[in-house]
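Reopening this one. Same input as before:
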Amino acid sequence: MSTSFFVNNGGSTAARDTIEGQVAAATTAKEDAVKVTNTAYNAQYTLSDGTTGYSANHYSQNSASISATVNTNMLETGNFRSEALEHRNRSEGFKDEAQSFKNDAESYKNQAESYKNQAEAATSNLVNLVGNESITGNKTFTGDIIASGGIKLGGTAAANELDDYETGTWTPYLARWTGGNISATYTTQNGRYTKIGRMVTLSFDINTSAIHGQGSSIAYIAGAPFNNSSSVNYQFAGTFGIRTSIPQATIATSCIKHNQNSSIMIRQNNDFDENYDDAFIAGIIRGSITYEHG
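Same output, byte for byte:
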């Protein structure tokens, strides 16, 4: 567009100048816009008014770079977050294990406390008497009382001392003074005893189904667990219950006396000072005797 266009059409000089100024300003603005838009990446532009800066292309590329960096950082942040969650989950697992260990520890503690209480309860029932001790008043003991020495009842003198109590079993045998224990088939050989202090009570139950052989001389019952206290024989008497292994014609009323070599001798009723020396026969002999052990 030229100036002559406006003149030839009858326009004034002032109007022409105005239009030309506007066109020049628009042209300059367009050029500035192109610079702002198209200036190369990382190169500065200078506008018509002297303003400098970077183009939109520059900022667009920077923005893309920043966006890529941000995306990378986001990915890394996501990875860190995943790792953090994993560590958190592992921490929760450790927390659960720690709680389990704590619960186990509490359980063991409770068990130990229970055992301690049981031990204390058991200990509280123990009576430990060392040396010479006196117990006054009524006392109840639910467990065993073990005394290595004697127990004095009703006084402190030696005569009040109970130094032994024992019960048990023993095995009685039929025997002859010459030849010892007889050869027999025993169906029963039972013996029991009770010893209180020096006094011993024996019981015996002997049953033979057959006598195969026997010696001679005095007939007696062997195997008594305690001997007689006296150096003189036959100080203590006993009784028979059943005595079918001793001929009835010889002994009507039986008695037993114990001598110092732990043999229960059989005395004849018709001559109390004589030992029974007839042969045993198969049968039963039962009885008891109480004597003093030395």
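So the earlier flakiness isn't reproducible anymore. For the record, The longest strand covers residues 199-213.
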